[in-house]
Queue: 2 jobs
Job 1
Amino acid sequence: MVDVALSPVEAGDGPDRPLHVAIIMDGNGRWARSRGKPRTFGHREGAKAVRRTIEAASDFGVTHLTLFGFSSENWTRPATEIGDIMALVRFYLRRELAELHRSNVRFQVIGDRTQLSDDIVELIENAERTTRNNTGLAVTLALSYGGRAEIAGAARRIAEEAAAGRLKPEAVDETALAARLSTHGCPDPDLVIRTSGEQRLSNFLLWQVAYAEFVFLDVLWPDFDRTHLASALDEFGRRERRYGRALS
Ligand code: IPE
Ligand code: IPE
Ligand code: MG
C-alpha cells in the first residue's frame, strides 16, 4: 500500500499545482486475452480501474484527471466490440454518477458526440449538469475523441468567425485557438501516462501535451492501481521541466 501522506504531491519538492494527469488507458484486450477471455471482459475490468484511479487521484492531490476511453479511430473496431464498450459507458454513467457527485468530482466528456447514441449523450449531459458546480477533482473522459479532429474543428470555427467578420486574422494566435478546443478553461496536462507498454499518443490531446512529461508503464490498464499512479507521480517529481529555457 502507498502511504498517502508520503505521496509525491505532498512531499515538498513536488510539481506546481494544479496537477493535471492525463491517462491513455490501454491494454484491456491483451489483459483479457492472457486469461483466455473475450476482449469485453478486459473492458469491464478496465472500468473498475477507472474507479480506483479517480479515487487515488483525489487522494494524491491531483486537480485534473483526463482519461482516454475511446478514440475517433476506435470506431474502426468490430461492431460487437464497439457495442460492448458503449454498453459499458452507459452502465458506468448510470452507476457511477451518484458516487462521483458524492465525491465532489466535476465530470465532463470531450469528443465527437454526434457519433454517440442519443441516450449516451443524454447521460453525459445529465452527469455534466449534475456535477457542474462541484469543486473537487475535475474528471474529463475523452470519448470518440481525436486530437487532430479537435484542432481541425477549432480551425473551422476560427474560419467561420473570420468570414463573418467577428474575428480579425491578426487576432488568431495560440490563445485564440486554445479557446476553441474542447479543453478550453482546463490547464494543459502536466503528466501523460500510457499503460500497456505502448509508447505513442494515438491522437490524444495533441495540442495540449506540448510540454507534458510522459511516463510509459508496462502494466495493462485493468491491473492499474494507486501504486502505479503513485510511481508515475514520483517519476514526474524527478523530471526537470524547462519549457525551452537554458539549464540553470
Ligand atoms: C484500451 O484497451 C481500451 C480502448 C481502446 C477502448 P484496448 O482495447 O486497446 O486493449 P489492447 O491494446 O488491444 O490490449
Ligand atoms: C488508444 O488506444 C485509445 C484509448 C486508450 C482509448 P488504442 O489501443 O486505440 O491505440 P493504438 O491503436 O494501439 O495506437
Ligand atoms: Mg490498445
Note: The first helix runs from residue 28 to 33.
Job 2
Amino acid sequence: MSRLLIPRKTVYRFSLYYRALQRLKTNSIETVSSAALAKAAGVKPTQLRKDLTYLGQFGTRGLGYDVSALATKLNEALGTTRLQPVILVGVGNLGAALLRYGGFAKEGFEILAAFDAEASKKRGAGLPVSVFPMGKLRELVRTKKIKMAILTVPATAAQEVTNELVDAGICGILNFSPVILEVPDGVVVNNVDLAIELENLSYFIQ
Ligand code: ATP
C-alpha cells in the first residue's frame, strides 16, 4: 500500500495501536481481539478494522490478532508513513502556545524540537519539547531529516532565520511573522498573519 494512500488520521491511529500492542507484549499477551485492541487504543472496533485493512489481510476470525505480528506490521508501515516531523523557531508567547497545543499530532504532524536565540531562558518553561540554541538547528534538521518549520520569531529576525532554515535543508515554512520572506525556488512559505486575518474580519463585520 502506497504511503500516500493511507489517510493521515489512520497513520496517527497506527501509532495508538502500536503503543497498545507494545503494552500487551509487555504483559506477555500473544493474541488480542479487535474489540480489546480497539478499547486499549481508545477507538471503536469498526474504526480499528477499517484502519487495519490498509495493512492487508490481518487476524484470524475468532482468534483475533497476533500481537507480535501486528506490531511488526504497524512498525513497518509507520517507518514510511511516520508523523511528519516539524521544528519551531522562536519560543516567545506565540511559539510557546503552539508548542503547548496538542492538536497537531491528530493531523499527522509532530513538533520534534524548538529553537530560540535565547534558548537558556526558555528551558524549563513547562514546554513539551526541548528548546535548543540556534547553533544546534542545522545538525538536528539534518540528522532527523526534517523538512518543515514553524517560524514564530519577531519580524526583524524572520528573514535571517529563514536563511538559516533554508541552509539547513528546510523546504516548507509556516510563517507567523508579518514579513514577506524571500526564499529560493523549491522552498514553500505559507503565511499566517493573525493581524491581517482580524483586519479582514473587521472589514466584513462593519
Ligand atoms: P517574549 O515574551 O519571549 O519576548 P514575544 O512573543 O513577545 O515573547 P518576540 O519578540 O516576538 O517575543 O520573539 C519571539 C521569540 O523569538 C523570542 O523567544 C526570541 O528570543 C526569539 N528570537 C528573536 N530573535 C531570534 C533569532 N534571530 N533567532 C532565533 N530566535 C529569535
Note: Residues 89-95, 116-118, 134, 153-154, 157, 160-161 surround adenosine-5'-triphosphate (CB under 6 Å).
